[in-house]
Write a structure and sequence with these properties.
CATH class: Mainly Beta
Number of helices: 4
Strand content: 25-35%
Largest sheet: 4 strands, antiparallel
Length: 123
């Protein structure tokens, strides 16, 4: 399937989902690990918040290798992640998470809000 159609399918599915499967390469093992995470989709960007901030394992793996795969239901695509450390930007992403998932759940599950991840879905 051509990349642009694939990205369109992934984006369409992401608009309906509350979680996305994130796969990254382990910084020590070199093996791909996958876990479900919450996200916020904003036009051609997808934002992720690691639940333990910069101490989250999958975020630490991204610090070593920016390769990330997003998958949901019947679509998957590989990207290069952008690590976000600017406090204002992280705060804006956190606010979008509060709007989507509720402030109480974000407070309950996210212990440290010092980093975020941005993925551009289209070039």
């Amino acid at each position: 399937m051509p990349k642009d159609k694939h990205e369109g399918k992934l984006r369409t599915l992401l608009q309906r989902d509350r979680e996305v499967n994130v796969s990254v390469i382990g910084r020590k093992s070199g093996k791909v690990t996958t876990r479900p995470v919450w996200f916020v989709l904003e036009q051609d960007k997808l934002h992720l918040l690691p639940v333990q901030g910069s101490e989250t394992q999958w975020y630490e793996n991204l610090m070593r290798n920016r390769w990330i795969q997003l998958s949901t239901r019947s679509a998957a695509e590989e990207f290069q992640a952008t690590l976000v450390t600017d406090p204002k930007t992280v705060s804006l992403v956190a606010e979008k998470f509060r709007q989507k998932y509720g402030a109480a759940d974000v407070k309950k599950y996210y212990s440290k809000l010092n980093v975020a991840v941005e993925i551009k879905l289209a070039e």
